[in-house]
Structures are given as C-alpha cells and as structure tokens.
Amino acid sequence: MKGKDMDPTMKYPGKLTPRVVLTCLLAATGGLIFGYDHGVSGGVTSMDSFLEKFFPSVYAREAGMKPSSNQYCKFNSQILTLFTSSLYLTALISGLGASTITRKLGRRATMMIGGVFFVLGALLNGLAIHMWMLIVGRMLLGFGIGCANQSVPIYVSEMAPYKYRGALNMCFQLSITIGIFGANLVNYYFVDLLNGQGWRLSLGLGAVPAVIFLVGSFFLPDSPSSLVERDRLEEAKRELVKIRGTHNIEAEFNDIVAARESSKHVKHPWATLRQRKYRPQLVLAILIPFFQQFTGLNVITFYAPILFRSIGFGSTASLMSAVIIGSVKPVSTLISILVVDKFGRRTLFIEGGLQMLVCQIIMAIAIGIEFGTSGIPGKLPHWYSVVVVGVICIYVAGFAWSWGPLGWLVPSEIYSLEVRPAAQSITVGVNMISTFIIAQLFTLMLCHLKFGLFIFFGCFVVIMTTFVYKLVPETKGIPIEEMSRIWDDHPFWGRFVRSTEEDTKSHMGNSKC
Ligand code: BGC
C-alpha cells in the first residue's frame, strides 16, 4: 500500500480483470490454509485413536483407565498443546525472514516457498508415525503461514484496483474463518474413517489447498509494485496494463515509482517508530493484537472439542459442537464486512466486547454450578448442553464481528507510510506470540483456573473495552493520508503528537537564535 495510490478520492482507471480475480482466489486459498491449520488441531487432539497413539497417558486419563486428580486436568499435557502451538512460533520466525524475501525476490517467490512448506507439513502430519513427525510437520506449516501471511495481503493490495482494496483485506479474514469451519467439518466427518485413523485424513487433507496455492503462485505474475521495487520498470508497466485492462496506467505507474522513491528515504523505520510522535501507533501496534488474542477466542477455536469432552460431552457431540460454533464465525465476519463502514470500528469493538463479557460470565457460572471445582458433573440434562453451546456461539459471534477482523483492519489503517512495514511486523509478531501463549497454556490454565478461566479472559475483555473507549480513535471514513489528524485531535494522544511539534518548533527557534 503505497502513498498516493491509497487516496480514495483519486481515480485510476481500470477494472476487475480475470488476472485480478485469480489473484483474489489465490489470496482466498492462502487464508483457507491458515484457517484450516488453525482449526484442525483441536479436533484431532480430542480423537481417541490419535491420543492413544501419540499421547497414551492423556488417553489413559481421558478414558478413565488412570485416575486424574481433577476432570479439568485430564487433557493437561504440555506436549499435547505443543502440537497446536509450535506452528505459531515458526510462523513468527518465518514472518520476519519472509519480509526480506518479499522485498528482494518478490511476493510471488515468498508465496511459492510458503506453498512448499504447506505441502510438506501437511504430508508429514498425515503420515506421522512418531511424535517428532507431528511437531516438525506443524512447524513446517508454521513456516508456510509466516510466508503466506506476510506476502499474500501485500500482494492482493498491490494487485487489486484501489476501490476493492478494503473489501479484499477483510475477505482474507473471511476465508480464514471458512478454513476453520472447513477443518471442524472435516474432523467431524473423518473421525471414524480409516479404521479410526481418520485424523490422518484430517491432517493430510491440508495438502490439497496447499498444492493449489503452490501451483497457483507459480503461474501468477508478480505485482507491479514489487517489480518497480526491484527496478524492473518496463515489466512493471506491461503488468499494470494487463491487470488493469487498459493502456491508461501512467498516473498509477508514476505514483508507484514516486512511492518507491520516497520509501527509499526512510532508512531506519524501526528507529523512526521509536520517536515520541509515533508513540500512539506503537502502543496500538502492540496492544491491539495482544488484546485480540486475550479475548480467549482461540481457546474455543483450538480446543472446543477438548473443552466439551472435559465437561462430559461424548467425542462425536464435541466435534459436532465445534462444527456449530465454527459456522458462526464466517457469518458474523460477513456481517462485519457489511456494517463496518456504517457503524464504525469503535461501535463494533465496544459492542463485541460487551457481548463477549456477558457470555463469559454466563459460561463461568453455568460450568461452575454444574461442575464445581472437581470438574465432576452430575447427570447433564440435554438443555444444559444446548445452553452452553448457544452461549459460546453468541460469544464467538461477538468476537467475529469485532476483534476478529478489526484486530487486523485497524492496525493496517493507522500506520503512517514511513513506519508501516515495521509497525505491521510488530502487529503480526505480537499476534503470533500471543496466539502461541494461549495455545500452549490452555490445558494448564483449565486445570488450575477451572471455570474461572472464563473470568480470567473476561477481565481482559473489560480492560480492552475500556482501552478502546478511552484510547482508540475512530478511523471510519478517513483517508489513509489524513489519518494523522486522529492523533492531533485526541485528548490523550494529542499530547504526544503536539509536544513533538512544539519541541520541533522550539528547537528550530533555538537554532535561529
Ligand atoms: C485471529 C485468529 C482467530 C481468527 C478467528 C483472526 O483474526 O487472528 O487468531 O482464530 O481470527 O476468526
């Protein structure tokens, strides 16, 4: 996203050509793979045959063969959670490396490398006979995700005609939620196949979109901005003609070249970001992804089946509940896409926060009353399961139309051009580390906090909702180039920006003296 080409008042001619449509499909495949790998592990780790093979002691506790001190603790195993979480560590590392490859070799090269990792990771997982194959497979998938998440959104925003850019940004999030839902469905339908080895199909199936992604990125062209960045100007011009479907591309081409020139002047984006006037942007770059993960949503994404089995649901019922919950996300994300520019970001953030909080309190009470601290249920009436699943659905809907998409959209809108890549890396990095922490510590937290786990995340939701209310300015309808005014006008952040301006003025005054 470069300079003037983000100005919504500016008209570059061009239409939605087949080449651009293919780009969008490829981007959707990238999101699907991320969502699939995100959603598949929780169901798999609740399957008996999988547990018996790789985690016999968890299986023994879960099947009641070995006593567990507490029902809430029967899935407590740091290796079990490492299977889910390892992906986010490697995604973090490769995301940082991928930014250099994306710049030097182009977006397409990064996507192809990501595609190779995806295919290898999915195959290794599907064929796993040892624990290391599971963990290494997940790590390879993580490398793929780091590459894809770094390159695909940039590629799409560079290829898309400017007026479709915002919608495409959120479509990436939509395809993530569809991928999660797909994984929930696959787990449900495959659990009993292959003589109880259905988990192999669940894990291996990830290779199908991965191959599509790999082959697709091989055939797609690199973006004009990336070609300009690597000084291949004539090629960039020809590509721009093809993707816009017109020869009238001079204005856009010149802006891409101008943006490239001005970005050359920002020699030290990381040091620049530490300056006082960027403090609001830096704080939001860190806190928004951190809070997004500490809503606790991924506890449900990754571990809903385990959570349900811990509170006494059967294996199939647990996987089915995950499917029902998974279906809520894409629908709610779609609603968010439709209303975000009407109601604004703050309204959605605050409404979503309150909705999640109420649900978390109800869940803590419902599980606390029925299971106490021992986790041993009485005879669960049918209505009880319906209420628990229903409340979780409302909670997930609250996330999926607020912190889910906005956790990515708002950061991408508020960074000034000169610090955008550095700030975006921080956002992705904090998101991955926070996801890792939640994924790794969930079973331990459930074991110790019990039903209080929901209160724990509820406290964070109170903090983040207050934070939005007080400190996150509205960005709805403000062109990216004019975004700096949201800080100038803000009662708190204005102090940082204004004092910097005053410092600069007084400094200039002193130097005149
Ligand atoms: C988050 C993921 C989450 C997904 C679910 C994304 O925005 O970053 O961690 O699982 O939304 O909708």
UniProtKB/TrEMBL annotation:
Give the residue spans that cross the bilayer: 75-97, 109-129, 135-156, 168-190, 202-220, 282-306, 318-340, 352-371, 383-410, 422-445, 451-472
Q: Which UniProt keywords apply?
A: Membrane, Sugar transport, Symport, Transmembrane, Transmembrane helix, Transport
| InterPro entries per UniProt | MFS_dom, MFS_STP/MST-like_plant, MFS_sugar_transport-like, MFS_trans_sf, STP/PLT_plant, Sugar/inositol_transpt, Sugar_transporter_CS
Keyword Transmembrane carried by entry: yes
Q: Where in the cell is it found?
A: Membrane
* SUPFAM superfamilies recorded: MFS general substrate transporter (SSF103473)
A GO cellular component term found in this entry reads: membrane
Domain Major facilitator superfamily (MFS) profile: start-end pairs: 23-476
Note whether Nucleotide-binding occurs among the keywords: no
Q: How does it sit in the membrane?
A: Multi-pass membrane protein
Q: Which GO terms describe its molecular function?
A: monosaccharide transmembrane transporter activity; symporter activity
Q: Spell out the Gene3D superfamilies in the cross-references.
A: MFS general substrate transporter like domains
Q: Name one Pfam family in it.
A: Sugar_tr
What the record says about family reads: Belongs to the major facilitator superfamily. Sugar transporter (TC 2.A.1.1) family.
Designated name of the protein: Major facilitator superfamily (MFS) profile domain-containing protein
Say which species the protein is native to: Acacia crassicarpa (northern wattle)
